[in-house]
Amino acid sequence: MSQWRLPENLKDLLPHQAKKLELYRRSLLDLFDSKGYQLVIPSLVEYIDTLNAHGKDLDLDTYKVVDQLTGKMMGVSSDLTTQTARIDAYLCKNQAVNKLCYAGPVLRTKSLRGQSRELYQIGLECFGDTSFSTDIDVQKTLIESLKLLNIKEIVLDINHLDIYNLIISRLDPVSYTHLTLPTKRIV
User: What are the pLDDT digits (tens) for 27-44?
Assistant: First the structure.
């Protein structure tokens, strides 16, 4: 047995895979930049009490390590979205609206359907503006991103009741008789 092996559901990206990922990353970040999103790069690790503020699911997905300098528990980033929210909340208070984007590796404790636990996450967030026009702009950018990646069959699952009602109000009543209202599940 070789000593050169990786833990289960982790893998290296070989040159052709790394090149493809980098081309996608560059294209998406250029698109986000053209839409006014500023790039942030969240830390690879942060204190677990900060990460735990974002819920139990994130806590279960987070690898924990001990900071050798302080003895405090830290978590390896498992979701850049929550860290970007932290950056907005603590570092960008001087602006009413912050359009931020991010790209980087994340590590999860569990694998979905045998996929790698080490993922590359790229995304964008618009903080401080809850208007419909902002929601629509974010959705348009999402669709542009998917098209840029040559993803042809796009399905959006919109769970925002106000957006749903706006769309429905503009449709002919006959054309949406088969549609169902989004439901709110209470756990």
Answer: 999 999 999 999 999 999
Beta strands 98-107 and 73-76, pairing class: unpaired
Reported as a single tens digit per residue, the pLDDT across 40-49 is 999 999 998 8
Tell me the residue type at 110: K
Residues 177, 181: Cα–Cα separation, whole Å? 11
* Strand 118-127 versus strand 73-76 pairing type: unpaired
- Euclidean distance between CA atoms 157 and 113, whole angstroms: 21
Q: What values do phi and psi take at 105, rounded to 5?
A: -75, 150
Other CB atoms closer than 10 Å to residue 105's CB: what's the count? 12
Whether 177 shows a pLDDT value over 60: the answer reads no
